[in-house]
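Practice problem: predict the structure.
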Amino acid sequence: MIRSTWSIFLFWLPLSAQWLMMATEGPFLAAVIARLADPTINLAAYGVAFAFAILIESPVIMLMSASTALVTNSQTYRKLRNFMHVMNVTATAFLLIVLIPFVYEWLTIRLLGLPPEITRLTYGALWILLPWPSAIGYRRFLHGLLIRAGHTRLLAYGTTLRLGVMILTAISLYTLWDWPGAWIGAASLSLGVTAEALVARIMAAKTLRNLNTNKNLSTTNVDDKLNYLEIVKFYYPLALTSFISLTVQPLLTFLMGRAPSPLESLAVFPVVHSLSFFFRSFGLSYQEVALAVLQENRENFPRLARFALWLGLATSLGIASIAFTPFTIIWFEQIAGLRPELTGLASTSLKILVPVPALSVFLSFLRSIYIQARMTSLITAATVVEVLTLAILFILLGWTLDMPGVIAAFYAFLGGRLAGVLFLLKDIKKCELV
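Answer:
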């Protein structure tokens, strides 16, 4: 039971550790790719493939929030499990459609205008990422059950395995096979996530047995029975939110390809984005924590708000300690492996992103409040505002003022995130928690 800010910290810590480990994936794989042949082209291809894959898997992202909020007994478990399987099959089918040659050519060459060498490498990487959507969906569904049952430490153990499999795969392919860097990155991600999904099923076995016998259940603010129409009404805005939110990276890829310094921007973007994700991950883990704690007792709201404030400040100070010190050169050149001519772009980009980790914490906290209040449609509206603001700012900065693409992209990202947070703050009193 949560009774203090300290107990919130202990509940959040394993989930934060899980996200931190996932956040190390991007910098590690970028560093591996940067040390292989044709690093600039392969970094760009890997970034494009990852953007496609994460966009296609976006409808399954919120399954963790859904299972945390909705699953209370065997009936609700079975209903949401069946719903999860449908979502996973649908996401995989979409990826297969993208991989149809004429569809892929239209998307990458005619629409995105990508160079042929990047297009070829991206196509192979997407085939390697084919298991990714279903593995992510299944894993997040099970993780939501574990969070609701209070077993947050198990999530960190599973991600430790995922990270280990990913590192082992990358090192093995780097050593034994003459694969392009983009393909090595994709294979490492795909095998790591699949391994984590399998071990999540093993770790959730006891929780599933308890659900099927109605043991240790909490039914606070949730009906004992759930039908598919109710699931769709609850989940559709969340899936749409996730989809719109995850269009950001493909959208920025498209926009950067038509702005000044396109190749340099596409190469720098995944390196800076993955480093910023490390600090934003503290906030990403907070959504399910706040949701589970509010499900237990709404009176925990003031403690959750205090924790969110301090967490946001700490994460932005963390990224600032790199962005505004000599360590930024050490990170980008010696650790990430960027060439000196790309380091200037990367350093400027990182400085722009300093407020974003704090905004990400606040956004996650606000979303948890709206999910708990079953007002998921407002989360979707806020995400639309965020993406529209981002697109307008990029067009103004990148296409009108001729800023380098990656600089315009991160200014737009910051402005969009701020707009999304302000939109949710505007209607927070409707949730009847404040």
